[in-house]
Amino acid sequence: MPSVTHEALVELFKNRPTLAAEMLHDALGHPVPTFTEARVESSDFTEIVPSDRRADVVVVLLVGEQQRPAMAIVVEVQLGVDPDKPYVWPVYVTQTRARHRCPTGLLVVTIDAAMARWSARPIDTGHPGWTLTPLVLGPHGVPVVTDAEQAKAAPEVAVLSAMAHGQSEAAEAIGEAFFAAAAGLDEERRAVYGDLVLSSLNAAARRRLEAMMKSGYQFQSEFARSYVAKGRQEGILEAKAHDVLAVLEARGLEVPVEVRAHVLASTDLDELDRWIRRAVIISDARDLLATTGS
Length: 294
What we know:
alpha/beta; two-stranded antiparallel sheet; 12 helices; 7 strands
C-alpha cells in the first residue's frame, strides 16, 4: 500500500496540473514549451504492461485552440529504492509519447536527498544512443516558501515546501506563510493541505503554530482522518530510522544506498532501536543489518 507521504505528493501534482511544468522549469531549469493548459491524463499502461503498472501522474501540456499536445510529463513519486523502476520508467515514457504523440519527459519527485541521487542515475536501455536520464526534483530543488503571497499564488508549492523542508529551521516560517494564505482555498483543499503542512513540520514549529491558532489542532480532512493513525506510526518509525542514519553519519561512516533504503523501509520499532544501538559500535555501515548482536 502506498504511504501517506507518497499519496500526498501525488495529490499535489494532480490538484495543480501546472505543478510538474513549474518544477521542471523553475526548479530544474529544464525547457518547457509555451502552453495554454495543463491536463492530467490517464496514467494506466495496460496495453503493454500488467494492470498494476501505472505511473503516479501523467500531465499533458496543451497549446492553441486545437489543444494540441506540446509536451507530456510522467511524474513518479519515489521514496525508496525499487529495482523495477529502471525497467518500467522507459516504458512509461515511450508509451506516453506514443499515446499523445509529443515529446515526453520523466520527472521523479522525492523528499529524500539519497533517493534523489539514486533516482537520477542514467538508465541504459541497451539500445545504442538511448539512455534515459530521469529529471529529479529532490529536496534541494524544492523552493522554500516563506512568503504568504507566494503561498497564496501556488498553494501546492507551499505544501511541497513544507514536506521537503519541514524539519529545517525554516519550518515555522513555511507554516506561517501557508496558513496566512489558506483562507483563499476551498474548504476541502484547506483541510487536506493544512493537515499535510502541520504533519510535515518539526515538533517545535508545529507547537508554535498550533498555539497561534489558539487551540489544539484537530485533523480536519477526510484524507487525514483516514490516515492519521497510520501517519503517526509512520512518523515515529521515520524519526527512529533517521536517528539510525544520523548516528552512522555523525561517526563518519559511509551509508550505502541499499542500507539507507532498508533502514527507511523498516516498520519494526524494536528493530530500529536495535539498529540505533548497533550504529554506535560498528565500524562499517554494512554491518548494521547483521542478525547477530544488539
